[in-house]
Amino acid sequence: LTLPLASMVTIRRFVESDWDRVWEILEPVFRSGDTYTYSRNIDKEQAYNAWIALPKATYVVEDNPDGSDTKDDETLRVVGTYYIKPNQPGQGSHVCNCGYVVDAAASGRGLASKMCEHSQRMAVDEFGFRAMQYNCVVSTNERAVRLWQRLGFDTIGRIPKGFEHPRKGYVDALVMFKELQK
Q1: What DSSP letter does each residue of the chain carry, written as one string?
Q2: Residues of the chain with pLDDT under 50
Q3: How far is the C-alpha of 24 from the C-alpha of 103, rounded, in Å?
């Protein structure tokens, strides 16, 4: 399912030929160590397993800088990605978990918001999830916390010093949750 979000941005399902570009987006975020719990030394294969192989689905955001309706691969560029997966197995599998990353060069354009909105629709319409939970929102990632709150997520838990930030030391991690509606 591909949903056009604006005249120049589309979110679609990940395909294998996207991987090198997705890794270019993920690697600096994972290496920085300030928003995700993945090892800062994660390699490309480990990242593939975590972001592509294990989730139920992975999506990419394509930007068409010239604004045309073309599907010419030369003009489309992947500028963001997210995954969706059950938060827990079995009896907890009706609650999903997602992770989102936007290319630093595309930051500030509302892409994380668009991916989150898209993921909520996919969670309900494609996969039948009833809720979405983020298990480790780093409290110092104030931009993300504000965005998730604006999109209807509540902070339902705080893990004191639950995240080791590379520059700020141990900081709180938030558990954020939203019930999803059909």
Answers
A1: --EEEETTEEEEE--GGGHHHHHHHHHHHHHH-SS--S-TT--HHHHHIIIIISSSEEEEEEE-TT--S---TTT-EEEEEEEEEESSSGGGTTEEEEEEEE-GGGTTSSHHHHHHHHHHHHHHHTT---EEEEEEEETT-HHHHHHHHHTT-EEEEEEEEEEEETTTEEEEEEEEEEE---
A2: 2-7
A3: 8
- Bridge partners (DSSP) of residue 154 are 177
Q: How far apart (Å, rounded) are the C-alpha atoms in residues 174 and 21?
A: 30
Work out the widest C-alpha separation in the chain, in whole angstroms. 49
Instruction: Give the pTM.
Output: 0.91
Q: For residue 2, give the nearest of 15, 17, 19 by alpha carbon.
A: 15
Do 76 and 63 form a contact (C-beta atoms < 8 A)? yes
Q: Which two tokens stand for residue 69?
A: 């309706």
pLDDT for residue 68: 54
pLDDT at residue number 4 = 41
